[in-house]
Amino acid sequence: TADAALYSAKDKGRNGYQFYNHKMGVLVEERAEIEHALHQALAHHELELHYQPKVDLGSGKIYGMEALLRWRRPEIGLVPPDRFIPLAEDTGLIIPIGEWVLRTACAQLGAWHANGFPHLTMAVNVSARQFLQINMPDLVREVLADSGVPAECLELELTESLLMQNRDLVVQSLEQLKEIGVTLSLDDFGTGYSSLSYLKQFPIDVVKIDQSFIRDVTDNVDGASLTKSIIAMAKSLHMTTVAEGVETEGQLGFLNTNLCDAIQGYYFSRPLPSGEMDTLLHAGARLPPDNCHAESRQR
Ligand code: C2E
Ligand code: MG
Ligand code: MG
Ligand code: MG
């Protein structure tokens, strides 16, 4: 029913997903049914990717984007990833879904490369479960070959939780991925327990500063100094910084002053379906020059 909303029932634990009909106040769907529906989602072409631009603060220009997964469920609407990725991880469905995401994002990037934007990069989120269950370097090699996209243009967004397990195996895979030539970034930095010095042992190129830090930069002194030191420390370790969840001009100003390399967030653009992203690219959307700084590394 149209008014059924997917929500995660806290008392059922992290993966206790249920459909709740607000009007009637009753449970209309159990986890098993969602699992069944998710099994069919790929075959029924219900998954789609939206794309959120990443903007270089040196030039003010879009240099790449991040692919963000959505599930368009018949009769329900667009389901955000936080509502079904944990279930996909638990059931192992994250393996075929993750492969579909990588292939679709690279195919889309190849199309943009061929249609006037040859330097764009594409970032794909990889969950720890997915990374640990398959041979990621083999999959990446295959998908790059099939799509014709240069390795330099593909970025994998990894989580801190991945770096906390099977250290030797993870380091080995990451080094193979670096040999292939893809960019490795750490998503949601600051929300886990790792420090930047811990990260030194991994070949990570980019640190994405979690939006919870960005939210605070203009609201409190501690938030500002934390973000400032993350940017400074990342730079000293030769890592690029990307601020996530930038929503206001004030936050942007702070990030410029403190020489953050790039931003992503609603301030510039929400994640968009490919057609709308195409329009944005062709319109030459960018930050005005006085909203940029000149010292960011060249892209
Ligand atoms: P993430 O990778 O950290 O992606 C950023 C999330 O923040 C996205 O939510 C994006 O829509 C949202 N966001 C961007 N700018 C702003 C802003 O200015 N303000 C606010 N409030 N939010 C902003 P989304 O698309 O719902 O994705 C949530 C998470 O789901 C992602 O977090 C990522 O961890 C995961 N995810 C998404 N797609 C995939 C995928 O294909 N595979 C895997 N494994 N995980 C995915
Ligand atoms: Mg991400
Ligand atoms: Mg993130
Ligand atoms: Mg996140």
From TrEMBL:
Protein name (Swiss-Prot/TrEMBL): EAL domain-containing protein
Keywords carried by this UniProt record: Phosphoprotein
Domain named EAL: residues: 31-285
Parent-protein start and end of this portion: 408 to 706 of 849
